[in-house]
Every structure is written in C-alpha cells, then in structure tokens.
Amino acid sequence: MNASTSLTTYDWISKDRFWLGCSVATVFVAVGWGFLRMGHIGWGLVGGVLFILGVLMFIQKKITFDKGRRVFLEAYRFLGFLQVWQRTLPFDRFDAVVIEKKESAHPSWPRQESQNYDISYRIGLRRKVGRPFWIRHDSFSYGQPYLRVEEFARRLSCDTGFEIIEVEV
Hints:
31% of the residues lie in helices and 40% in strands. By secondary structure, the protein is an alpha+beta fold. It has 2 domains: 7-89, no CATH class; 92-168, no CATH class.
C-alpha cells in the first residue's frame, strides 16, 4: 500500500462552514483593530478581545488517519495550511466510533407546540480510557436529515474497522 492511500484526512467542520467562519473572523479582526486604534483603555480591551477571537477563528482543525503507522494526527492550521500545533494519538487507544446527539430547544419555540429545535452532533472515536476524541461537529434544525452525520460515521467506521455507537446527551 503506497503512502498516499494510507492517509485519510477529516475536517472538524465542513469547508463551507470554515470559510463562512473566516468571513465572520475578518469582521472581528477589522472591528477589533479599529477599537484598538481608538486609544481608549475600555475600547482597547474590547478591541483586543475581538481581534484575538477573530484571529483564532482562522484556525482549522484537521485529523489525519495514517493507516500504515496506525496513528491519528491532530493538527491545527492557520487558514488551513500554516501548522500551529500537532499531536499524535496511537490507534490502539480507541475501540469504537461514537455519534453524540444533543438537542437544544429555543426558548421562543416551546418544544411541546413545535418541533423547532436544533440538534448538534459530534462524531469521534471512543477511547478505551477517558473521554472521546472528537473528529467532526455538525448541527441541524429539527426535521433536516442527518445523512452527512451517518455518512461521515460510516466512512470513519470503514476506515478504522470500529463499530458505530450512538449516544444522546
């Protein structure tokens, strides 16, 4: 098996959502920079916080599964290509693929009268000891199919050979 087919990369969020986040981050950086340049201590603090949050929003998390070495590489990259941080996790620390489902009702939309609430999903690997290692996050409004979640979990299960377990929080 050659090296190119032994590597599989997973994104924490979809590329569309990442680039949408980058456009919001640009606004945070610009407004933060404007507040910093005002010269007032109060606005400078607000500007500094907005600026730092904006810069951090440009960081993208990627997980790479190296089938040949049987390790997961977790990397954080600025704008998706400049590596900021990386760690390696051995494959044998995990034993299943986990789908975590969390429902959030909106206060303005009572759940009893309406089915309008958000469902948040995290997909990852269950550690033999400790908390799960999350690989993907996705969310939907009630009634939308969660085919992306199922498809991603099946792909991860196929790549790792682990069974899929669903849990509700």
